[in-house]
Amino acid sequence: MAPINANDINDAKNFVPAKQVLPEVETDNGNGKASSKGYSYETLQETANFLLSRISEIPSIGVICGSGMGSLAEIIKEAVRIPYEDIPNFPVSTVEGHHGQLVFGNIGDVAVVAMQGRFHYYEGYPLWKCCLPVRVMKLIGVKTLIATNAAGGLNPTYKIGDVMIVRDHINMMGFAGNNPLHGPNDERFGPRFPPMSKAYNYEFRKIAKEVAQELNMENIIREGVYTCLGGPNFETVAELNMLKMVGVDAVGMSTVHEVITARHCDMNVFALSLITNECVTSYADDAGEANHEEVLDVGRMRQDILRKYVSVLIDRFSKIETNP
Ligand SMILES: O=P(O)(O)O[C@H]1O[C@H](CO)[C@@H](O)[C@H]1O
Ligand SMILES: Nc1nc2[nH]cnc2c(=O)[nH]1
């Protein structure tokens, strides 16, 4: 082993983390369980009131931009951009490919808000905090959530660059008791025991398939089951093979908890996964490895088609009366 010299020690002392503002980590609440109290309804109302004071039109649709998909928010006209740092009680984004601002404005005739940057559990935020923006959206009047994400394709028929309409999810983290709704329930948001069997709106999925045909996207559109793992590491071969066996088509580290939070407060939900990499399910020596750069590259590669697709979907979704 090379001896440590004084320069190495000085380098280590001068090391500056890439992001200066790191999230607070979920703390122990004294009884050995992580605190999951969350913010009160009134606190989130303050956040909502702050945002309402900065905008002139109430958005009806909220969009969460996935990794490398932040450019979706660039189609918003008359945009009002509010950095997360400026929003009371809001977390900050720490992941490359997640800008960290809310963008209010219009797509076509529809008033929208987009999150350019979402919050992930692996950043150190408890799930309720990852989902705080969804409740804030609800409080400012958003009726429909469109969540987008980058995901590994586990279904062997999926190719990189495919777009998967999420039909359903498997809440792996929830199996272990980690749920954004864990802790006291405030009925003003929703019921203690919300159903999830119709989490992804049927009408929206039907429209999304029709629009894909109109835009000649049939060859890249899929519909399947998404799961979220805690991350930040990508999965082992054994883990991926297990997930495949239970019917997972695409794997990511987000969305599931956002959807649960949105359905809890009775928002309509639609979700899309951009397949950014093929999940590695064999031990072959030449099998590749997942990496975040590839994820971001595929997002960039598909940005034009996704912008077009999402803008047409927003137009169509805004025109129908739907029961969640
Ligand atoms: O789910 P989004 O935020 O799109 O990003 C996905 O891509 C990142 C890994 O490359 C992880 O954050 C994973 O969740
Ligand atoms: N967990 C997980 N998240 C991803 N996000 C993009 N690709 C992947 C993947 O392969 N696994």
UniProtKB/TrEMBL annotation:
Entry keyword set: Glycosyltransferase, Transferase
GO terms assigned for molecular function: purine-nucleoside phosphorylase activity
InterPro entries tied to this protein: Nucleoside_phosphorylase_d, Nucleoside_phosphorylase_sf, Pur_Nuc_Pase_Ino/Guo-sp, Purine_phosphorylase
Coiled coil: none
One GO cellular component, as annotated: cytoplasm
Entry superkingdom: Eukaryota
Protein name per its UniProtKB record: Purine nucleoside phosphorylase
